[in-house]
């Protein structure tokens, strides 16, 4: 395939950032900047039977693979379309049975290797950046990340050596896993539930900003990049690599840990939102000392990490949680909820309810309530979260849209029609910019609203 580039943009050398993407024409808010098919992708295990393994469509009555009975498809066309990749796993699934358990990253890397062997020309997902050009940052990995890479390589050999003959040598695999870990994407649905993992080379070309001018959403396995600010000719196109809820110091720590750079974007330099994000509880007595605040932030980060390790599941914040969501959790949901409530009580002695660390634990508590089908509890947390989210996140944030969506569906389920429609309309307004007015997620929300009229 000829390198045709992406109309309206160009690859360039960004000062202090390396290669990047910039606009050569104006893009208005909500306009599609470009779309990029996945170079390779894999559906997460927890969404099997709910989504098609090939196109990621969400529907009932999917047909399962007759051999392994673990992959599900819309129809024969989707099954045939996925076979070049699924055949990699199908026989292994049959051979290993319940012991077949490679990580999502290992599954993705195996598919990338197969795709690279079958493809000799530049693919439609590499119009500006080849996958082989990805940075791996191997020289910056700590011992823990190096051990994880070696563990993934061992799993690749264990589960795929019979399907992928002549695997690359160890150093080449270390490089590839490093590239995928630094440049991979998580495909999510409209409520930000995890659907799968993928690599989109042209999307990976964009540099990071904590005040991005584009947002990436997904239409099946197609990534779509839309403007969330006006972009003028000559402007660099910036995506966000991380959750933007947190204050500057926290964001920078996350970016250094995962992507190995110190962010110097306008938001990080101005810290304009940090005061609101770190709002303290108003007291009649003297305010807390800086040391007390630092100690509480340290506690909050520790609790967040402890909670992450304790739950070991995904999709907790879906309003239609499945029984598989907690299968791997060593901690009962009631104990997780208690952990959330105790941490909020302790942090609440210093932090206001709008403080982002309080909001984080409220969000986790909401997820546990949803799983336990405590709809009133989930709704109560959502009502506390949604307004501060609207302040802390940038305009047209998917996090804000998904919270309005969850709340709207909760309200309707609890027969609070007026509030439900109002929340769904708020979600729709954001989604029409972020996803585009013709996206099937937007159509679903419109249908839900219309059914209440």
Automatic annotation (TrEMBL):
InterPro entries with a match to the protein in the record? H3K4_H4K5_MeTrfase, SET_dom, SET_dom_sf, TPR-like_helical_dom_sf, Znf_MYND
Sorted alphabetically, the Gene Ontology cellular component annotations on this record are: cytosol; nucleus
User: Which GO BP annotation is one of this protein's?
Assistant: heart contraction
| Entry's Gene Ontology molecular function annotations | histone H3K4 trimethyltransferase activity; zinc ion binding
Zinc found in the keyword field: yes
Residue limits of the MYND-type domain?
A: 52-90
What role is this protein assigned? Protein-lysine N-methyltransferase that methylates both histones and non-histone proteins, including p53/TP53 and RB1. Specifically trimethylates histone H3 'Lys-4' (H3K4me3) in vivo. The activity requires interaction with HSP90alpha. Shows even higher methyltransferase activity on p53/TP53. Monomethylates 'Lys-370' of p53/TP53, leading to decreased DNA-binding activity and subsequent transcriptional regulation activity of p53/TP53. Monomethylates RB1 at 'Lys-860'.
Q: What is this protein called?
A: [histone H3]-lysine(4) N-trimethyltransferase
**Which organism is this entry from?**
Muraenolepis orangiensis (Patagonian moray cod)
């Amino acid at each position: 395939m000829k390198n045709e580039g992406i109309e309206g943009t160009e690859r360039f050398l960004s000062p202090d950032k390396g290669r990047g993407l910039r606009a050569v024409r104006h893009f208005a808010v909500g306009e599609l900047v470009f779309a990029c098919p996945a170079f390779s992708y894999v559906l997460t295990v927890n969404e099997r039977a709910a989504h098609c393994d090939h196109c990621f469509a969400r529907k009932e009555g999917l047909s399962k693979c007759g051999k392994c009975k673990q992959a599900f498809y819309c129809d024969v066309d989707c099954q045939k379309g996925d076979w070049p990749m699924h055949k990699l796993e199908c026989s292994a699934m049959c051979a290993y049975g319940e012991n077949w358990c490679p990580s999502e990253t290992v599954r993705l890397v195996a598919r990338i290797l197969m795709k690279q062997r079958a493809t000799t020309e530049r693919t439609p997902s590499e119009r500006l950046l080849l996958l082989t050009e990805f940075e791996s940052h191997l020289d910056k990995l700590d011992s823990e990340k190096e051990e994880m890479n070696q563990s993934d390589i061992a799993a690749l050999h264990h589960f795929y050596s019979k399907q992928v003959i002549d695997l690359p040598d160890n150093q080449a695999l270390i490089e590839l896993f490093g590239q995928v870990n630094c440049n991979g994407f998580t495909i999510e649905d409209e409520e930000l539930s995890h659907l799968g993992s993928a690599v989109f080379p042209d999307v990976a070309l964009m540099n990071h900003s904590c005040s991005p001018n584009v947002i990436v959403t997904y239409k099946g396995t197609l990534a779509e990049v839309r403007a969330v600010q006006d972009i003028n000719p000559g402007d660099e196109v910036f995506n966000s690599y991380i959750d933007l809820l947190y204050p500057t110091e926290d964001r920078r720590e996350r970016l250094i840990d995962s992507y190995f750079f110190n962010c110097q974007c306008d938001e990080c330099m101005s810290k304009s939102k940090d005061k609101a994000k770190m709002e303290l509880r108003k007291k009649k007595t003297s305010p807390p000392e800086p040391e007390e605040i630092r100690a509480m932030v340290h506690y909050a980060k520790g609790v967040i990490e402890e909670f992450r390790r304790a739950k070991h599941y995904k999709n907790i914040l879906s309003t239609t949680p499945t029984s598989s969501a907690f299968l791997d959790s060593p901690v009962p949901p009631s104990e997780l909820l208690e952990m959330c409530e105790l941490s909020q009580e302790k942090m609440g002695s210093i932090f206001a309810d709008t403080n982002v660390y309080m909001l984080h634990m409220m969000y986790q508590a909401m997820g546990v309530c949803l799983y336990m089908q405590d709809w009133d509890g989930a709704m109560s947390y959502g009502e506390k979260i949604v307004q501060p989210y609207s302040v802390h996140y940038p305009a047209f944030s998917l996090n804000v849209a998904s919270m309005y969506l969850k709340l709207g569906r909760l309200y309707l389920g609890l027969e609070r029609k007026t509030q439900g429609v109002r929340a769904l309309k708020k979600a729709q307004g954001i989604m029409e910019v972020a996803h585009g007015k013709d996206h099937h997620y937007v159509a679903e929300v419109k249908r839900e609203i219309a059914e209440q009229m």
